[in-house]
Amino acid sequence: MEYRNLGRTGINVSRLCFGSLTIGPLQAGLSLDEGAVLLKYAAEQGVNFFDTAEIYDSYAYLRKLLRAFPNKDIIISTKSYAVTAEEMKASLDKARKELDRDYIDIFLLHEQESALTIRGHRAALDYLIESKEKGLVKAVGISTHRIAAAQAAAEMPEIDVIHPLFNIQGLGIQDGTRQQMENVLTGAAAAGKGIYLMKALGGGNLLPQADEALQFAFSRPFVSAVAVGMKTPQEVDINVLTASGLPVPDELKKRVSKALRHLHIDPWCEGCGECAEVCPQGALFLGADGKTHVRQEECLLCGYCARACPYFYIKVY
Length: 317
Ligand code: SF4
Ligand code: SF4
Description:
It is a single chain. By secondary structure, the protein is of the alpha/beta class. Helix content is 37%, strand content 19%. The protein is built from twelve helices and 14 strands. Helix 1 (32-44) crosses helix 2 and helix 3 packs across helix 5. It starts with a strand and ends with a strand. The structure holds iron/sulfur cluster (SF4) (2 copies). The site of one iron/sulfur cluster has 14 residues, from helix 11.
């Protein structure tokens, strides 16, 4: 496994970052022991960088990982939707308590949209900056699906890390093209920001071209690390090999591609119906709860609906 400096944070991260959303209750719902075993397996393969968020509900798995490797330098990045200083204090206290750790390596404002939204979260950001001065947080930043927010963060000296959505097809970038995002991130890296990507596999929608998509993400010069959600040891093996620039045996690829996959619609779906309009199978329907649902038995996993959702709420895993 190769390691890189995360911008000017002084934090050295493995190129493969384990995205822990996949193991928790919002996705695969692995038991605490199953999830912790998988995280430990990844750490044994050289992964030292683990991404989470307050909303992912995965701190308990990570606590087990930290306890299993008390002497290993495990880097945890988390994020919160906190707006006020009080809310951010509660988020930071919760993370430190549930991870059973005095400090958090990287703390991000979750899903920022623009300079305006970052300004709206100023009190929460200032609380993080004060916490950094006290040694409770080592680096602060934002996560975002938008070019406008990445641009704004690139221009803010107090931001250390940007965690942007970026993939080979630009799938899910909400306000422009892949090339525009790439230009902004290149400038951000030149300004010293640490950049680690999310959604390099387009929320599972790019799995049919997973090799190409991951190689593309790891090869971007502005990228320190790429966060990838994983839920089996075989997926860890494939991603560790790809992150290390090594070929993946066909047999391993076959075992992973045969795993049963489903379309998943995030519970915060707004029921706008744009996805259902493009489904060639008529597999999507509006439920009594006002959200769109899928008849899995009719779904071909073609991905058209994911591209149609303006909020990137449709994933495959
Ligand atoms: S993946 Fe394709 S078939 Fe399945 S619900 Fe979406 S558009 Fe319809
Ligand atoms: S397009 Fe997105 S928000 Fe709209 S109904 Fe479909 S999943 Fe929900």
